[in-house]
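Here is one chain, start to finish.
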Amino acid sequence: MGDVYTWRDALTQVASIAGWDLWDKHESRVIEELVGKIFSDLNFIYSSVHKDLVGIKTRVNNMMNSYLQLGLNDVHFIGIWGMGGMGKTTLAQVIYVRINHKFEGSCFIANIRGKSGDSWLVPLQKQLLSDILIESNIYIRNIQWGINVIKRRLCCKKVLIILDDVDQYEQLEPLVGEQDWFGQGSRIIITTRNQHLLIQHKVSEAEIYEAKKLNNDEALQLFSMKAFKKDSPLEGYVELSQEIISYASGLPLALKVLGSFLFHRSIDAWKCAIRRLKESPEREILYILQISYDGLKEREKKIFLDIACFFNRKCEDYVVNILQTLYDQPIIDIDVLKEKSLITTSRGKKLLMHDLLQELGMQIVRRESPENPSQ
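Its structure:
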């Protein structure tokens, strides 16, 4: 008759694919773990990854080829950096779905921004361990306790960890403090608006991916999918669509918000909306962008507003000379604005601010002096 093929044999095959060891584990426990893992992954795929992924394939392939394949047996910290609304989270989600099966355990922790102290970070440590180890009753007394457990339990596991929207260096140490906390081949991906935070955590500049805005064709396709539910504008809406594309300047968030707002509206309504945008941008867009502004120190905020109102696209040396008459050593403030993706420098050494960030700055100034904006 031959050997009997048991449940134990089947489970051993399936579990070995997932990188799990069944030695001395009861079958019911393993079934529970496998089912939990499968449902967790399926739920993530269908709830988190969006359908309107215009331009994502090129960006994912860039990440895969240039950042995720280096030193396959080493542990790597990788950054995804860029201004708010640029699609960092979406990129990280797609990468997670694409490669998480290659690891012994994985975890995606979303929306870390603003979370600090034991009351927030201890639950995140528990989530990290629970997702990777498929265990629900993990006891952690405090942050240091959690650090010790993470180091002890994960040091021999090849893991994929994504920390999304990190805004404080102190959030990294309790969760992914050092490379030797994790097994060979592990990948820790951090999305943030603050480049300096990554550098503080010893992420090399070669392993920081700067999120890129959409080109004109990609922007038109994404906007059309929201505004017309198809890949291109309807007849009569082409020029108006191009006005919106120019206004959004390749920012995926703005294209989605504006496209959804203009869906199924008349040409006259579109014209009115475009005129209104020039006076007052959509609140949802400004809210996301203002998060970065709100995180600045007072002097950094002032210099951001100065650049928005007077110095966008001006030579950096010229701007620094002017600002030095108002502030002591403004170079450090300009560096911070660059690190937080609020300004960039062109090849011609000009300071550049995204059009919508400039509009945000002007809106803030108007709110400060509504009766006399020139002030």
